Amino acid sequence: MARKAPRHAEAERNDRALLEAARKVLARDGVHASVASIAARAGVGIASLYRRYRTKEELFQHLCVLSLGRWIEAAERGLEHDDPWEGLVHYVTATIEFGGGALGPLAGTISVTDEMAEKFTRSDQLMQALVARAHEAGVLRADAMAVDISLLIEQLGRSSLVDQFEERGAEGLAGEAANARDRTIAIALDGLRAGHPPLPGRVPGADLLAERWEHAPGQ
Protein backbone atom coordinates (compact mmCIF):
# COMPACT_ATOMS: atom_id res chain seq x y z
CA MET A 1 0.00 0.00 0.00
CA ALA A 2 1.40 3.37 -1.01
CA ARG A 3 2.25 5.69 1.84
CA LYS A 4 0.37 8.97 2.01
CA ALA A 5 2.25 12.18 1.32
CA PRO A 6 3.29 13.95 4.54
CA ARG A 7 1.01 16.92 3.88
CA HIS A 8 -1.97 14.69 3.18
CA ALA A 9 -1.34 12.64 6.30
CA GLU A 10 -1.01 15.83 8.35
CA ALA A 11 -4.28 17.17 6.91
CA GLU A 12 -6.03 13.93 7.92
CA ARG A 13 -4.64 14.14 11.45
CA ASN A 14 -5.77 17.74 11.70
CA ASP A 15 -9.23 16.80 10.43
CA ARG A 16 -9.61 14.12 13.10
CA ALA A 17 -8.40 16.50 15.80
CA LEU A 18 -10.68 19.30 14.58
CA LEU A 19 -13.75 17.06 14.46
CA GLU A 20 -13.12 15.81 18.01
CA ALA A 21 -12.46 19.36 19.22
CA ALA A 22 -15.58 20.70 17.49
CA ARG A 23 -17.67 17.94 19.08
CA LYS A 24 -16.55 18.95 22.55
CA VAL A 25 -16.63 22.72 22.04
CA LEU A 26 -20.07 22.62 20.40
CA ALA A 27 -21.38 20.47 23.26
CA ARG A 28 -20.16 23.15 25.67
CA ASP A 29 -20.79 26.38 23.73
CA GLY A 30 -23.48 25.45 21.20
CA VAL A 31 -23.86 27.81 18.23
CA HIS A 32 -21.56 30.30 19.98
CA ALA A 33 -18.56 27.98 19.49
CA SER A 34 -15.66 29.91 18.01
CA VAL A 35 -13.10 28.80 15.48
CA ALA A 36 -10.38 29.95 17.88
CA SER A 37 -11.68 27.65 20.65
CA ILE A 38 -11.90 24.69 18.30
CA ALA A 39 -8.42 25.32 16.86
CA ALA A 40 -6.90 25.70 20.33
CA ARG A 41 -8.50 22.49 21.56
CA ALA A 42 -7.33 20.63 18.45
CA GLY A 43 -3.79 22.03 18.72
CA VAL A 44 -4.06 23.55 15.23
CA GLY A 45 -2.84 27.05 14.48
CA ILE A 46 -5.64 29.51 13.74
CA ALA A 47 -3.63 31.03 10.88
CA SER A 48 -3.14 27.69 9.14
CA LEU A 49 -6.82 26.94 9.67
CA TYR A 50 -7.89 30.09 7.86
CA ARG A 51 -5.46 29.34 5.05
CA ARG A 52 -7.38 26.12 4.47
CA TYR A 53 -10.90 27.34 5.22
CA ARG A 54 -11.84 30.84 4.14
CA THR A 55 -14.71 31.22 6.60
CA LYS A 56 -16.12 29.75 9.79
CA GLU A 57 -19.04 28.40 7.76
CA GLU A 58 -16.69 26.61 5.38
CA LEU A 59 -14.92 24.95 8.32
CA PHE A 60 -18.21 23.83 9.87
CA GLN A 61 -19.43 22.49 6.53
CA HIS A 62 -16.26 20.43 6.23
CA LEU A 63 -16.68 19.12 9.78
CA CYS A 64 -20.25 18.07 8.96
CA VAL A 65 -18.96 16.12 5.95
CA LEU A 66 -16.39 14.38 8.18
CA SER A 67 -19.04 13.55 10.78
CA LEU A 68 -21.42 12.16 8.17
CA GLY A 69 -18.55 10.00 6.96
CA ARG A 70 -18.35 8.48 10.44
CA TRP A 71 -22.11 7.76 10.38
CA ILE A 72 -21.70 6.07 6.99
CA GLU A 73 -18.77 3.98 8.18
CA ALA A 74 -20.70 2.86 11.27
CA ALA A 75 -23.69 1.81 9.14
CA GLU A 76 -21.52 -0.05 6.64
CA ARG A 77 -19.81 -1.94 9.45
CA GLY A 78 -23.21 -2.70 10.95
CA LEU A 79 -24.44 -4.19 7.69
CA GLU A 80 -21.37 -6.45 7.58
CA HIS A 81 -22.69 -8.28 10.67
CA ASP A 82 -24.56 -11.47 9.80
CA ASP A 83 -26.85 -10.95 12.79
CA PRO A 84 -29.29 -8.06 12.12
CA TRP A 85 -29.58 -7.18 15.81
CA GLU A 86 -25.82 -7.12 16.37
CA GLY A 87 -25.44 -4.98 13.26
CA LEU A 88 -27.91 -2.45 14.63
CA VAL A 89 -26.23 -2.55 18.04
CA HIS A 90 -22.87 -1.81 16.42
CA TYR A 91 -24.32 1.15 14.54
CA VAL A 92 -26.05 2.71 17.54
CA THR A 93 -23.11 2.14 19.88
CA ALA A 94 -20.49 3.45 17.43
CA THR A 95 -22.41 6.62 16.56
CA ILE A 96 -23.12 7.44 20.19
CA GLU A 97 -19.51 6.86 21.22
CA PHE A 98 -18.08 9.22 18.60
CA GLY A 99 -20.70 11.86 19.44
CA GLY A 100 -22.88 11.52 16.36
CA GLY A 101 -25.29 14.23 17.47
CA ALA A 102 -22.65 16.76 18.50
CA LEU A 103 -22.92 18.89 15.37
CA GLY A 104 -26.69 19.25 15.76
CA PRO A 105 -26.35 22.83 17.10
CA LEU A 106 -25.10 23.86 13.64
CA ALA A 107 -28.46 22.96 12.06
CA GLY A 108 -29.98 25.98 10.35
CA THR A 109 -26.92 28.16 10.95
CA ILE A 110 -24.91 27.08 7.89
CA SER A 111 -25.78 26.35 4.28
CA VAL A 112 -26.02 22.70 3.28
CA THR A 113 -23.49 21.94 0.55
CA ASP A 114 -23.99 19.38 -2.21
CA GLU A 115 -21.41 17.14 -0.53
CA MET A 116 -23.24 17.35 2.80
CA ALA A 117 -26.55 16.50 1.12
CA GLU A 118 -25.01 13.58 -0.76
CA LYS A 119 -23.48 12.09 2.38
CA PHE A 120 -26.67 12.63 4.38
CA THR A 121 -28.63 10.75 1.70
CA ARG A 122 -26.13 7.89 1.70
CA SER A 123 -26.11 7.74 5.50
CA ASP A 124 -29.90 7.67 5.60
CA GLN A 125 -30.09 4.90 2.97
CA LEU A 126 -27.69 2.71 4.93
CA MET A 127 -29.52 3.30 8.20
CA GLN A 128 -32.87 2.48 6.57
CA ALA A 129 -31.32 -0.77 5.36
CA LEU A 130 -30.16 -1.62 8.90
CA VAL A 131 -33.61 -0.89 10.31
CA ALA A 132 -35.46 -2.79 7.56
CA ARG A 133 -33.22 -5.82 8.07
CA ALA A 134 -33.82 -5.77 11.84
CA HIS A 135 -37.58 -5.43 11.33
CA GLU A 136 -37.64 -8.32 8.86
CA ALA A 137 -35.76 -10.50 11.36
CA GLY A 138 -38.31 -9.61 14.05
CA VAL A 139 -35.64 -8.35 16.46
CA LEU A 140 -36.48 -4.62 16.33
CA ARG A 141 -39.80 -3.50 17.78
CA ALA A 142 -42.23 -2.87 14.92
CA ASP A 143 -43.11 0.67 16.03
CA ALA A 144 -39.48 1.90 16.22
CA MET A 145 -38.47 3.67 13.03
CA ALA A 146 -35.22 5.08 11.69
CA VAL A 147 -36.06 8.58 12.90
CA ASP A 148 -36.60 7.26 16.45
CA ILE A 149 -33.14 5.70 16.41
CA SER A 150 -31.56 8.86 14.99
CA LEU A 151 -33.11 10.92 17.77
CA LEU A 152 -31.92 8.45 20.39
CA ILE A 153 -28.37 8.58 19.00
CA GLU A 154 -28.36 12.36 18.92
CA GLN A 155 -29.62 12.73 22.46
CA LEU A 156 -27.15 10.20 23.90
CA GLY A 157 -24.26 11.29 21.69
CA ARG A 158 -24.04 14.92 22.73
CA SER A 159 -22.24 16.24 25.80
CA SER A 160 -21.63 13.30 28.10
CA LEU A 161 -20.40 12.88 31.62
CA VAL A 162 -17.21 11.50 30.09
CA ASP A 163 -16.53 14.83 28.35
CA GLN A 164 -17.51 16.83 31.41
CA PHE A 165 -15.09 15.00 33.69
CA GLU A 166 -12.31 15.05 31.11
CA GLU A 167 -12.81 18.81 30.83
CA ARG A 168 -12.18 19.05 34.58
CA GLY A 169 -9.17 16.75 34.43
CA ALA A 170 -10.93 14.17 36.61
CA GLU A 171 -9.70 11.11 34.74
CA GLY A 172 -10.81 8.66 37.42
CA LEU A 173 -14.37 9.92 37.27
CA ALA A 174 -14.21 9.93 33.46
CA GLY A 175 -13.65 6.16 33.62
CA GLU A 176 -16.69 5.75 35.85
CA ALA A 177 -18.68 7.96 33.50
CA ALA A 178 -17.69 5.79 30.53
CA ASN A 179 -19.01 2.76 32.39
CA ALA A 180 -22.26 4.59 33.15
CA ARG A 181 -22.56 5.60 29.47
CA ASP A 182 -22.20 1.97 28.38
CA ARG A 183 -24.99 0.98 30.78
CA THR A 184 -27.23 3.75 29.44
CA ILE A 185 -26.62 2.62 25.86
CA ALA A 186 -27.49 -0.96 26.86
CA ILE A 187 -30.72 0.22 28.49
CA ALA A 188 -31.65 2.21 25.38
CA LEU A 189 -30.89 -0.73 23.08
CA ASP A 190 -33.00 -3.06 25.21
CA GLY A 191 -35.88 -0.64 24.73
CA LEU A 192 -35.55 -1.08 20.95
CA ARG A 193 -35.98 -4.85 21.09
CA ALA A 194 -39.20 -6.44 19.94
CA GLY A 195 -41.67 -7.49 22.61
CA HIS A 196 -42.19 -4.24 24.52
CA PRO A 197 -45.51 -2.37 24.95
CA PRO A 198 -46.31 0.14 22.17
CA LEU A 199 -44.48 3.46 22.18
CA PRO A 200 -46.54 6.56 23.07
CA GLY A 201 -47.73 9.05 20.48
CA ARG A 202 -47.16 8.83 16.75
CA VAL A 203 -44.01 8.14 14.77
CA PRO A 204 -42.06 11.40 14.22
CA GLY A 205 -42.07 12.67 10.64
CA ALA A 206 -39.21 11.37 8.52
CA ASP A 207 -38.13 14.97 7.77
CA LEU A 208 -38.07 16.07 11.42
CA LEU A 209 -34.28 16.10 11.62
CA ALA A 210 -33.64 17.16 8.02
CA GLU A 211 -35.93 20.21 8.07
CA ARG A 212 -33.99 21.93 10.86
CA TRP A 213 -31.02 22.18 8.47
CA GLU A 214 -32.99 24.65 6.34
CA HIS A 215 -30.70 27.66 6.38
CA ALA A 216 -32.28 31.00 7.25
CA PRO A 217 -30.76 33.84 5.17
CA GLY A 218 -28.67 36.23 7.22
CA GLN A 219 -27.67 33.66 9.84
TrEMBL record:
Gene3D superfamilies: Tetracycline Repressor, domain 2 (1.10.357.10). InterPro entries: Homeodomain-like_sf (IPR009057), HTH-type_TetR-like_transc_reg (IPR050109), HTH_TetR (IPR001647), Tet_transcr_reg_TetR-rel_C_sf (IPR036271), TetR_SbtR-like_C (IPR049445). Pfam families: TetR_C_43, TetR_N. Keywords: DNA-binding, Transcription, Transcription regulation. Residues 34-53 bind DNA. It comes from the Bacteria. Residues 12-71 form the HTH tetR-type domain. This is Helix-turn-helix domain-containing protein. It comes from Streptomyces gottesmaniae.
